[in-house]
C-alpha cells in the first residue's frame, strides 16, 4: 500500500516537486508536467509522453536526451487534462512539431486528442498515437481497443530515437506506429496496489492465485488461476506473446520483463532465466533485453512480458543511446542538445492557470454568478464527502479514481468560480472559469466532460441580467448536448448521461407546466438520483471491454451517481435560498 | 512476499542465471559471484563488494566500469562463504590487489576476513572493510558494532572511484574508511518481506505503525511508533542523521533516499521534497542526490536516508562516472578498461568446488568414513525437515536464515561426504570434504563454523583404522575448541557452543566411565537437546545489539537447537547400526 504522503489530494504535486528536485540535471517543471532541462533543438520533433502517474519511471522518468522531450503528468492513475497535455506539448515544441503518445485509455485518448487539436489551432503541428500492446485486453480482431502497458516503453523509446535522428513529424509517427504494431505484451498480477490515503486496496487477488491479463490499474483480466512456478509463468507469458507474433515479423526481438512494483528484481531474474531460454528455443534472437521496473503500478505485485519484433529501423532505434533519470543506454551526443532553459520560462508544476482576465457583467448577472459559485462550492463539499463511496463504485468496473477526480475538479471549479465572482463575472464568466479549471485539474475523462458541461451551460446563460426559466432549461439541454458531442456516448450506455438526461427532461417538463425552475430543481434531482441507481441494470457500451461490461452489471455507473449527487447538492443550495435563485 | 521461484533452495542460483543473461554486456559469472565482463586492467586495484542477496541492485547490480570489479553473491540474506569471497577476489584481481568490502554483519565479517587471509596466503594483496552507517543499530560509542545499510552504496562507490583513479590498495582502503566514517544512515520499516517459499513473512510491523531503525533483514529497531506523514518522516530522518554529523564535517553532502522494495518511487519523491528542503534549511548543500531503490530487501516496505559528508576527495569520487547494470553516471572512459574476458576463464555460478583429489585410507578407515557419510546424510535429512522451525526460531532475534543455511550446508556436506567415500576416504577425508562444502555452500556464520567443526573432528579422527572411544571424544573436543577459536564466543553467550559443550562433556564422562561412545551418544544427544532448550533463558553476548539481546530472551538459540538436532539424528544412525559404528 501507499503509506507515505502528506495530503493525499496533493500527492502528485508533492511527488513531482521531489522528482524535479532530485533530477534537476535532467528535467524542469512546466504547467502540466515536465520537459528536458535543455530546450528542444530547433528543427527536432518533440516526443511528449504521458498519462496518469503512479507508474514511475513511466512517464517522467524517461525524459532526457535520446528519449522523451516531455512528459504530461496526471494524477495517480488518472489522465492528465487537455490543458496539461497542450501545455507540455507547447513547452517541448522545438518548431518541428510534437508527437503526443500515451497508452490507449479513454481519458488519455480524449484529452490528448483534444490537446493535439488545440496545438494545431495554435499553429504547432501535432500528432497523437495510443499504444495498444496488451494482448489480454481485447481480442485480435479488436486490436485498436487494446490497452497500453509496458509496450509504452518500447514504442516511446523507438519514436524518441527516430525524432533524435532528425525524422520529420509524420515519419516519427510512422515509426511509432510500426513499433506499436510490432509490440505485444502479456501481464499477470498477484496482488493490488493501494492509492495514497485509500482505506482499501484498489483491487485484490486471492492469496495463492494469479490474475492473467489483469490491467495496470486493476482492470479485469482474462482468467484467475493458481500461482505458478517461475518456469511455468515464463512458459505462459512466452507462449501467450509469441502466439500473437505479427504477420511477417522476423526473429530479432527487443524484450522487456517488467516488474509492476512489488515483484522484485530477484524474482524477475529468476523468471528471466526461463523466458530467455524459451525465447531462444522458439528461434528468437533477443536484442538488449530490459529486466526491471519500467512501467510500475504503485506497489502492485505482478509482472509482464513485452516483445517487440524488430526490423533494421526499429532495432537501430531500440539500441540508440539515451540518458534520462532512470534509463540510460550508450552515450547520447551532447551536440544534439538545445540550450539550458531559462528558469523564467518554466514554472512550478502546480497546474494553476494564469490569473483570469477581468470580466464585465451587469449587477443582476453578477448576483446570479455569485449564486452559481455558491452552488459549485456546495458541489465541491458534497464530492469531498462522497469521495470514498464514488471510488468504491468506480473500482468495480473502472480504476477507482472517479471520486478523487471529482473532488479535485469540483474543488478547483469552486475556487475558480469564487475568484470569478470577485472579478465581477456573471453566470457565463463564473461557469467558464469553473469549467476550465475542472477540466484542467481533475484530469480523466470525467474532468473534461464536466468542464465542457459547465462551459456550455454558462455560454447559454450569458452574462446579462437574471436568466429566466426557459433560459435555464435551455442551458442545461445545451450542456447535455455538449457531453453527447464530446463523449461519443448515448443514453443507455451507462454513463453520466443516463442521470443527466432524465434530470434535464424532468426540469423541462416542470418548466413547460409553468413551475419555476428553482422550485422544480429538487424534484428533478430526485429523478436524476433514481436514474443513477437504475444504471446498475445497464451494460456499458462505450469503449469498454466485454469482461469489464459484465463485471459492472449490478453496480451503478459512478459518473451517473456523482452527477446526481451534484445536482442534488445544488438543489439544497437553491432551496435554502429560494427567494433569490440565480 | 516473494512469489516467483522454482525450487526455493536454488533461488539464488536461478536469480544469478537470469541476471547474468540479461546483463551479459556488463558481467560474467565466476564461482561465488560475478565480475565485470572485461578483466581488471593491470595495476588497478579491484574492489569486490558483496553480502547476501535479496538486496538488488546491491550487490551484483553495481559491477561495472567506475564501480565494483566484482560482487560475491550469497544466498538470500546470508553471507557468502569464504570460498566464494576468495574466488571472486581472485577473479577480480588485476595484480594490484583487492579491497573486499561488505556491510558489517557477523557472517560477512567472518567469511570475508578469512577470504582476505586466504588471498594473502596466495600472494594476492587483500584488505577488508565493513561498512557501519546504520546509526540505529548501536550507540555512538560502539560505532564499530553498527550495521551497514544503504551507506554500503556510498562507501562502495567512493572506494571504486578511487581504485579507478589509480590509487594503490592501501590508499583505496584509506578513502573507503574516510567514506565510511563520513556516512550515516537511518531507516524505517512499515512491513516485512517474505523469503522465497517461506510460509510467513520474516517479520511484520503492525498496520499503521512504523519500526524506526529496523534492519534490512528485520533486525529489531529502536522503537515502534505510529505511521507519520511524509513530512514528519522526512523530519525524523533528517534530524536523526544530522544529529550524528561527524566532527569537523563540512556542509556539502551526498544523499541517498533509498526504498527497500515496496515503498515506491512516487512515495520516495514525496518524502524527498521535504528531505531536500530540511537539509537546505540546516545549511547543507546537496550534491547529486539519489532517490530510488539502491539497497533493497526483497519486497520489504520502508526506506532509509543516507548522508555522506564530503570533502574534496570524497566529492570527486562520489561524482566520478560509472556504468553498471543499474547505476550510471557520466561517461566512464573506455580507455581504462581491461580486455573482454575469455569465456573459458569464467564458470557458471554453481559454487561447486573442483573435483576432489583421490585420498588414501585403509579398509577399516574407509568403513568408518562411510558410516560418517551416512550420519551426514541423516543430518541433511533432519535439517530439511526442520528448516521452517529453525527459520522461525532464528527470526526472533536474527534474520530467519538459519534453517535455509543449515539445509544448504548439510546437503552439500552430505553429497561431498558420499563423494569422498567413493574416492576411498576415511573419517578425515570424508569430514574434510564435508566441512569444506558446508562452509562453501551454506554461507553465513554458521556455515563457516560447521565447516570448521567437521574439519577439526575429522583431523583428529584421521584416516587410519577404526577410531577408538578416546579418539572419538578427543575429536569432538577438538571440534569444540575450533569453534571457540573461530567464533570468539564462550559458553553462556547463547550460541551453538551452549549445546555442543554439554554434549561433549556428557560423552567424555560416559566414555571415562567405560561406556562405548556409540552407546553413550544418544544420551549425550539428549543432554544437548535440553541444553539447547535452556538457551531460551540466556541473553546473547557476542556481537548483538542490546534490543536484539532482549528480544531473544525466551527463545532458544537457533544454532544451539540445530546442533542438538544434528547430534540427535546421528544418534539414530549409530543406534540402528550399533553393531558397526565408525
From TrEMBL, chains A, B:
DhaK domain: residues covered: 7-327
> Which SMART domains is this protein grouped with?
Dak2
SUPFAM superfamilies, alphabetized: DAK1/DegV-like, DhaL-like
InterPro entries documented for this protein: DhaK_dom, DhaL_dom, DhaL_dom_sf, Dihydroxyacetone_Kinase
What Pfam families does the database record attribute to this sequence?
Answer: Dak1, Dak2
What NCBIfam families does the entry give? PRK14479.1
- PROSITE patterns according to UniProt: DHAK, DHAL
Residue numbers spanned by region Disordered: 323-366
Q: Which domain of life is it from?
A: Bacteria
In Swiss-Prot or TrEMBL terms, this protein is called Dihydroxyacetone kinase
The DhaL domain covers: 370-572
Question: Which UniProt keywords are given for this protein, alphabetically ordered?
Answer: ATP-binding, Kinase, Nucleotide-binding, Transferase
| One MF annotation (Gene Ontology) recorded for this entry | glycerone kinase activity
What EC number(s) does its UniProt record assign?
2.7.1.29
Amino acid at each position: 500500500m501507499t503509506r507515505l504522503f502528506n495530503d493525499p489530494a496533493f500527492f502528485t504535486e508533492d511527488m513531482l516537486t521531489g522528482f524535479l528536485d532530485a533530477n534537476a540535471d535532467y528535467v524542469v517543471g512546466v504547467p502540466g508536467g515536465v520537459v528536458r532541462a535543455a530546450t528542444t533543438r530547433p528543427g527536432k520533433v518533440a516526443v511528449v509522453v504521458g498519462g496518469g502517474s503512479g507508474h514511475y519511471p513511466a512517464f517522467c522518468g524517461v525524459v532526457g536526451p535520446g528519449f522523451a522531450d516531455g512528459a504530461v503528468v496526471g494524477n495517480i492513475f488518472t489522465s492528465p487534462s487537455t490543458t496539461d497535455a497542450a501545455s507540455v506539448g507547447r513547452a517541448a515544441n522545438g518548431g518541428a512539431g510534437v508527437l503526443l503518445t500515451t497508452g490507449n485509455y479513454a481519458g488519455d485518448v480524449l484529452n490528448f486528442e483534444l490537446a493535439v487539436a488545440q496545438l494545431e489551432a495554435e499553429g504547432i503541428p501535432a500528432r497523437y498515437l495510443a499504444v495498444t500492446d496488451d494482448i489480454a485486453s481485447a481480442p485480435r480482431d479488436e486490436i485498436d481497443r487494446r490497452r497500453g502497458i509496458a509496450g509504452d516503453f518500447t514504442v516511446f523509446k523507438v519514436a524518441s530515437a527516430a525524432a533524435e535522428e532528425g525524422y520529420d513529424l509524420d515519419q516519427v509517427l510512422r515509426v511509432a506506429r510500426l513499433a506499436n504494431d510490432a509490440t505485444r505484451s502479456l501481464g499477470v498480477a498477484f496482488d493490488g496496489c493501494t492509492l495514497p490515503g485509500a482505506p482499501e486496496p484498489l483491487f485484490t487477488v486471492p492469496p495463492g492465485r494469479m490474475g492473467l491479463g489483469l490491467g495496470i490499474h486493476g482492470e479485469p483480466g482474462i482468467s484467475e488461476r493458481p500461482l505458478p512456478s517461475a518456469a511455468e509463468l515464463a512458459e505462459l507469458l512466452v507462449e501467450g506473446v509469441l502466439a500473437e507474433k505479427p504477420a511477417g515479423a522476423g526473429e530479432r526481438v527487443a524484450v522487456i520483463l517488467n516488474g509492476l512494483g512489488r515483484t522484485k528484481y530477484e524474482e524477475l531474474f529468476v523468471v528471466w532465466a526461463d523466458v530467455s531460454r524459451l525465447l531462444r528455443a522458439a528461434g528468437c534472437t533477443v536484442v538488449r533485453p530490459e529486466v526491471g521496473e519500467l512501467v510500475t503500478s504503485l506497489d502492485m505485485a505482478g509482472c509482464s512480458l513485452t516483445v517487440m519484433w524488430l526490423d533494421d529501423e526499429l532495432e537501430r532505434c531500440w539500441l540508440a543511446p539515451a540518458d534520462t533519470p532512470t534509463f540510460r543506454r550508450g552515450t547520447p551526443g551532447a551536440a544534439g542538445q538545445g540550450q539550458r532553459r531559462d528558469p523564467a520560462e518554466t514554472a512550478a508544476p502546480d497546474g494553476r492557470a494564469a490569473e483570469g482576465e477581468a470580466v464585465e457583467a451587469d449587477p443582476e448577472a453578477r448576483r446570479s454568478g455569485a449564486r452559481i459559485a455558491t452552488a459549485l462550492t456546495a458541489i465541491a463539499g458534497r464530492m469531498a464527502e462522497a469521495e470514498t463511496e464514488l471510488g468504491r463504485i468506480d473500482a468495480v468496473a473502472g480504476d477507482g479514481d472517479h471520486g478523487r477526480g471529482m473532488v479535485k475538479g469540483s474543488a478547483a471549479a469552486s475556487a475558480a468560480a469564487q475568484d470569478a465572482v470577485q472579478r465581477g463575472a456573471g453566470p457565463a464568466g463564473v461557469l467558464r472559469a469553473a469549467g476550465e479549471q475542472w477540466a484542467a485539474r481533475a484530469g480523466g475523462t470525467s474532468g473534461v466532460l464536466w468542464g465542457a458541461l459547465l462551459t456550455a451551460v454558462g455560454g447559454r446563460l450569458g452574462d446579462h441580467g437574471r436568466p429566466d426559466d426557459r433560459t435555464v432549461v435551455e442551458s442545461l439541454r445545451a450542456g447535455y448536448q455538449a457531453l453527447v458531442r464530446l463523449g461519443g456516448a448515448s443514453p443507455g450506455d451507462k454513463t453520466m448521461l443516463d442521470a443527466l438526461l432524465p434530470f434535464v427532461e424532468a426540469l423541462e417538463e416542470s418548466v413547460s407546466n409553468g413551475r419555476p425552475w428553482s422550485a422544480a430543481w429538487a424534484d428533478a434531482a430526485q429523478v436524476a438520483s433514481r436514474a443513477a441507481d437504475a444504471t446498475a441494470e445497464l451494460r456499458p457500451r462505450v469503449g469498454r471491454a466485454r469482461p469489464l461490461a459484465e463485471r459492472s452489471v449490478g453496480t451503478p455507473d459512478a459518473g451517473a451517481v456523482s452527477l446526481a449527487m451534484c445536482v442534488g447538492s445544488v438543489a439544497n443550495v437553491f432551496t435554502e435560498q429560494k427567494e433569490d435563485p440565480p
